[in-house]
Fold this protein.
Amino acid sequence: MKSNVGKLLSTAAIAATISTGATAATLDDVKAKGFIQCGVSQGVPGFSNADASGNWTGIDVDACRATAAAVFGDAQAVKFTPLSAKERFTALQSGEIDMLSRNTTWTYTRDSSLGLDFTAVNFYDGQGFMVRKDLGVESALDLDGATVCTEQGTTTELNMADFFRKHKLSYVPVVVQKADEAVAAYDSGRCDVFTTDKSGLAAQRSKLAEPNAHVILPETISKEPLGPVVRHGDNQWKDIVTWSMFVQVNAEELGITSKNVATIKKETTDPGIARLLGTEGDMGAQLGLSADWAYNIIALVGNYGEVFENNVGPATPVGLPRGINNLWTEGGVMYAPPVR
Amino acid sequence: MIDKTPSNNNSFLNDAGNRALIFQILLLALVVFVGYYLFSNLQSNLDNRGISTGLSFLNEPAGFPILIHLIEYTEANSYGRAFLVALINTVVISLLGIVLATVLGVIIGLARLSNNWLVARLATVYVETLRNLPLLLQMFFWYFAVLAALPHPRESFIFADFFLNKRGIYSPNPIFQEGFGFVIAGFVLSIVAAIALIVWAKKRQTKTGLWFPAYWSSFGIIIAVTLLSLVISGFPIEFDLPQKSRFNVTGGMVLPPEFVAVLIALSTYTASFIAEIVRAGILSVNWGQTEAARSLGLKDSLTQRLIVLPQALRVIIPPLTSQFLNLAKNSSLGAAIAYPELVAVVMGTTLNQTGQAIETIGLCMLVYGSLSLSISLFMNWYNKKMSLIER
C-alpha cells in the first residue's frame, strides 16, 4: 500500500507541474531554449517538406525561419515537428510547439473556440478538384455520381459536402486518414476525383507517376486563407509572428531582396526603409526584439516574392502561378500594414 | 508461561482491523482528492486558453458525409447521429469479424492437427504468415494491393445482375412489396416448429435412447416452409438492379472495398491466433479420452462433439475472449483505409471540426470500454456455463 501512495503522490506532482506549463510568455521560453519549435506538415511539397538529408523547405517552413531570424538573427534556430491534420491544434494548445505553420485555413471556429489565434495569411488558397483527363470532365458541375477521395481532419470534407449539396449532385465520399493514402486511393482508381486545396492538388499531382494525365478543374469551391497560428492570449508572440510575415510583404513592395538588402541598408535615404531596416529608431524594441530584426528576416529568408518563387513558383516542381498571391500593386491581394 | 503485563495494547488504534480501515479511508480520500484536482486543473486550463467545453456540440449539424451508414444519415444530421452511425459501423465490423475469425480459426486449428501432411503444413504456413505481419500492413495489402487490382467500374466483372469492380460489389437490392408479411409469418412459424422438433427429439433420446436427426430436419423445415409461403403469396419482392452510370455503378446494394478489406484483414489475422488456441485446447484433452470414447463405440464425429470439444472449450474460452477483445479494438485501424468507424468519424472529422478533443476522445474511450466489457461479460457467462461441473 505504501508504494501505491508514493505513486499517487508522484502523479499529483506531475499534474501540478503540467498546470504551470505554457502560461509564461512564449518569447521568453523560446529565448531560454534557443530555438523555435515549429509544427509543420508531414510532407506537402512547396509548403513544408523534408528532403533526403532531413532539411525542411517550403513556404510554411520559411514562415518559421523568418520568425527565428527576427528573434535570434539565425534562420536555422528552428526545430520542426511534423504533425497530421488531426494532431496540429492539440500540439499547439498543449504547448508542445511554439507556432503552427502547416497550411492551416483561417476559419471562424478555429479562431474563436480553440484557444488559438491566426497571425497573418501567407498563402491565399481555395479548394478544387483533380480528375483524370480521360474522363473528359470539364467542370466540377459534371461530377454528379462521382466517387470523391479526400483527406480526413481538414476543412475540405465540409467544403466538399457543401458544394455537392448546394448543386444537388450525388457523390460517394471516401475519406482517408492521411493525405498520402488518399492520393494512393485516387491513383489506384478507387475514386474519380481527389479534392483538397488547389495548392495541395498541384503539389500532389507533381508526385503522381504521370502528372499530365490529371487535370485540376477550374472551379474554386472555397476560400482557404492559410497562415501561421499561435496560442490565444500571448499578444507579444502573436505580434512577432504576424509582423515577421508583414515585413516580408513590405520588403517585396519596397523592392528589397535578400541580395540587395545589405547595400540598401547602407545607402538608403528613404526614412521608411531606414526605419524598417533598423538604421533609424528602434522598431524592434517594441516587440522585445533587436533593432535589426526586420533586416535579419529579409537577409536570411528573403522577401515574400522570393519565398514564393523559391518554393511554389512556376520554376519549381509544384509550379503554381502567383495569381491572387501577388502584391496588391500587381493585381493580387497581398497587402501588409506599414512598418511605422 | 506467558507474561501478561497490563498495557493499553487493546486500544482502538492497535486493532489491526481498525488500522486497515483507517488506511483504506485515507487512501480513498487521497484518490478522490487527486481525481478532483486533476479535473479542476483541466477545467481551469481549458478556461484559461479559451477552449469551450461540454457535449452540446452533439446537437449541432455535422455537415460532413459518411460513406457507410446502416441507418438513415445525411449531411444535415447532427454530430450525435454521426456518432451513432460510426458506433454501429464499429459494432457491425467487430461482430462480423468475431464470427468469421472464429469459424476460420477453428477450421485452421483443426487443419493443423490433420493427419493429411499437406493440409497440416498449409495451415502452419497460414498461421505463421498472418500472425507475424502487422495488422495495419495487412489492411493496406488487402485495400491497396488486392481490391484495387479489380477492374475499373467501366470494365466491371458482370455476373447476372451482380457487378464487381474496385468500387465494390454491387448486388440487386430487394424491395419488399405488400404481402411480404405472409412470408415473414411463415418464416417465424417454421422456426417455432423447428425448435419444437429439437426439444421433442432431445426428450425422446433421454427417455428411449433413440436418435433422430433433429438439426438437419429442422433446417429443411425452415427452408421448405419459407419457400412455400413465397410461392403462395406470389413472390412479393422486387429488385432494384445496379446499373452502369457515367462514373460508377449506381442503384442496387453495394459492399464497398473499405468494408471488405477491413473485414478480411481483421478476421484472417485474428483467425491465425484462434487457430493456435483451438489446437492447444484440443491437444490438452488426454488421448485416453478419445480411446475410451472409441471403445464405447462412438463414431469419430460424435467423439469430437461429445467428448473432446466440451473439454477443450474449457481451455479455449479464456484466451479466445482476449482475441475477441483484440479484434474489437483493432477495428479502429480501419480508419487508415477509410472505413468510417468510431475513430475515423468521431476522433477524426468531429474532433477536427469542433475542436472538442477531450469530449470526443472521452466518448470513444467510453464506447470501446463498454464494447469490450460487453464481450467480456458474455464470454465469462459462456465460460461459466462450459466449466467443469464437479459433483
Notes: Confidence is low (pLDDT under 50) at residues 1-23 of chain A.
